[in-house]
Design goal:
Elements: H1 12-22, E1 30-36, H2 44-61, E2 65-70, H3 73-83, E3 90-92, H4 99-107, E4 111-114, H5 124-132, E5 138-140, H6 162-173, H7 177-191
Parallel strand pairs: 1-2, 2-3, 3-4, 4-5
Helix pairs in contact: 4-5, 6-7
Length: 195
């Protein structure tokens, strides 16, 4: 997929190439696509256009989408309400929205992916999301090299640190880390057709 940061540099030929790649049987999703209004490295109108075109592409090639949403919650939701039909699933990558928004996302058939910020002491909002959303709709990730979880916050993130995300989810839900790992792994396989 074309990340929102790159939307300004995309040419029509790039979309044609993306379609060819997305249609390949070894490709499991279209992403990371969406909107990033924090850095605004590409104009918002070009981000929206790229996002809409890639949702349509995912629909056409029957692949789920991986959604990037940074400081664009309202617009992401408006687009999903209108455009997320006949797309075989998706995930809100590195989720940072409210529990109410998460509930609506899950009703649409998307998963919520939880990363390192869930371990931050000052992030009660994400803890509420984990508490309220059923484990069967959660994925876990690192977003390495960014968003390093506690106890390594401030250092470069790495894949091995995903265990701290799983441990925090287990603590919040009062279940075992093994159950978190098992269910979120199964969710990942189901979403991406890896069963």
């Amino acid at each position: 997929g074309i990340h929102p940061h790159d939307a300004a540099t995309v040419k029509e030929d790039d979309f044609a190439q993306l379609h060819q790649w997305a249609a390949h049987p070894k490709v499991v999703a279209v992403g990371e696509i969406g909107l990033d209004y924090y850095r605004n490295l590409s104009p918002r109108d070009l981000q929206r256009e790229a996002f809409l075109r890639q949702i349509a592409l995912a629909r056409k090639v029957a692949k789920p989408i991986i959604i990037h949403d940074r400081d664009a919650h309202g617009e992401i939701m408006d687009i999903l309400r209108q455009e997320f039909y006949d797309v075989p699933g998706g995930v809100m990558h590195c989720y940072s929205g409210s529990a109410e928004m998460a509930a609506e996302i899950v009703k649409m058939g998307l998963y919520i992916s939880i990363a390192g910020p869930v371990t931050f002491a000052n992030n009660r909002k994400l803890g509420e999301v984990v508490e309220q959303i059923e484990l069967g709709r959660l994925l876990i990730e690192t977003d390495a090299p960014y968003l390093t979880p506690e106890p390594h916050r401030g250092k470069r993130n790495e894949s091995a640190f995903v265990r701290f995300v799983a441990e925090k989810i287990a603590e919040i839900k009062k279940i075992s880390v093994e159950e978190v790992a098992s269910v979120t792994s199964a969710n990942t396989r189901r979403l991406f057709g890896l069963d």
